[in-house]
Write a structure and sequence with these properties.
Elements (H helix, E strand, L loop, with lengths): L3 H29 L16 H8 L1 H34 L5 H8 L1
Length: 105
């Protein structure tokens, strides 16, 4: 029984971290759907007005497009580097291999 206690504690700690990280995102998302010009609780209505106004401004759309391009490029480069690194770790012998395996695994 004492062996299961750390597992439950770890799961509870992970849940708290997830809540701590996701709660602000949820608050911002819900406050962006309100019909008022300011943040009120509880929201007085739901609308996508602020998102349609974002689409109508070209500077926001240019920034969004650039962010998507950078994210896509970063994902491609990261995937290539990660794949090559994993192949090197699995198939080759080199200094520091043990440290890399212990760091990742």
């Amino acid at each position: 029984m004492s062996r299961k206690l750390p597992k439950y504690f770890f799961n509870f700690a992970c849940l708290l971290v997830y809540i701590f990280l996701l709660a602000p995102i949820l608050v911002v998302l819900l406050s962006s759907l309100t019909t008022t010009e300011y943040i009120v609780f509880p929201p007085e209505g739901l609308t996508l007005r602020w998102y349609t106004e974002l689409i109508e401004h070209p500077e926001f759309m240019q920034s969004f497009t650039l962010s998507i391009i950078v994210a896509f490029g970063t994902a491609i480069i990261s995937t290539a580097i990660g794949t090559l690194a994993s192949l090197a770790v699995v198939r080759r012998q080199f200094k520091g291999k043990t440290a890399i395996v212990q760091l990742v695994g």
